[in-house]
Amino acid sequence: MPIDRTFRETWTIVNDHLGHPVWRLSENATIEIHGSRVGVDFSLCYGCTKCVNACPTVVFELIQDESGQSVADPEREDDCILCLVCEIVCPVEAISVEREGGSDDTLTSLLEGTRG
Known about the structure:
By secondary structure, the protein is α+β, with helices and mostly antiparallel strands. The protein has a single domain (7-112), classed as Alpha-Beta Plaits (2-Layer Sandwich). The protein contains 4 helices and 7 strands; from the N terminus they run αββββαββαβα. The chain has helices at residues 7-10, 50-54, 85-89, 103-112, and strands spanning 12-17, 20-24, 33-34, 38-41, 61-64, 70-73, 95-97. A 5-stranded antiparallel sheet has the order 1-2-3-4-7. A two-stranded antiparallel sheet has the order 5-6. Strand 5 and strand 6 (70-73) form a beta hairpin. The longest helix has 10 residues, at 103-112. The chain is globular and about 45 Å long.
């Protein structure tokens, strides 16, 4: 199941990690999404590094989560240029980039190979 793209409206910020929020659906939930502008669902990410390697502005840092699993943490999410490449390359749909005007058109164009 892909990241819950409604997390910014329906989840609660429960912590701060290196300057970005950590979200949970409820206080007792164990699934965490790190970041706001660029959200990464740590329960889905398995550290393949595709987003790390594809990001033109070096938003992600590979870290170890609490269980020792490698995950891509959006440590520099303020540097994101909303190109959506990380979403496209993520094989498990663990990333959600906040949408602004034109973002969906850009994604559609990239996926279909057409101009918007």
